[in-house]
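Researcher: Final request for today, and then I'll write up notes for the group meeting. The sequence and the SMILES for fe (ii) ion follow.
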Amino acid sequence: MAITADYSEKIPNNVDLHEDRRLQRALESWQPNFLTWWDSMGPTLPTRDVYLRTAVNVGREGWAHFGHVAMRDYRWGIFLAERKHDRRIAFGQHKGEPAWQKVPGEYRADLRRLIVIQGDTEPASVEQQRNLGATAPSLYDLRNLFQVNVEEGRHLWAMVYLLHAYFGREGREEAEELLHRNSGSEESPRILGAFNEETPDWLSFFMFTYFTDRDGKYQLGTLKESAFDPLSRTCESC
Ligand SMILES: [Fe+2]
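Model: Predicted protein-fe (ii) ion complex:
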């Protein structure tokens, strides 16, 4: 697996996407839908002239190397942590067995559900936070807000990659749904209640980061221990 991110591709990645044309085409057709979603549901304040950190390289030592890009040039991609040699399942019924590189049939539905729920929270929080830029207490807060937003987009891309790469047609359909559900929507709300709550001001946002997101942090810590190795490798630096 290439560890250096390939930025010559339409979708920057370190998963050798060009070696699987079908997968590459499927993700390239999801990409414009994502960008349309970002334009219509992402930050309402113009993000021109905002410079953000972006991962340019991923390695096991010190997870990512960062460069700076203008927000308008920010390119989401797929960056998984390096595969650990001979990683074993750490607990439970399958303890000690090699971590799964493919989805075992008996856990397919459960794993898909887990990934969909995780994936659903990522665009949901961008939607919740979309108006906060207008009332940022400082430039520092504003920049951090946008940074958080693009990182959520990165996590979404990771979950969508897993759905496309490992869950066939159902996975592709779930990936579409991640952009159709919206925070607070009557007809198709986000899956978890907390992600349908309004975040109209920075106090709500700070409470969100302090409680809801704090909980999410530990949740990602548990996903990192997943027996399904590709899922574990998306959570290295979530
Ligand atoms: Fe996230």
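Model: The chain has a mean pLDDT of 88. The pocket of fe (ii) ion is lined by residues 122, 152, 155 (CB under 6 Å).
Researcher: Thanks, that's everything.
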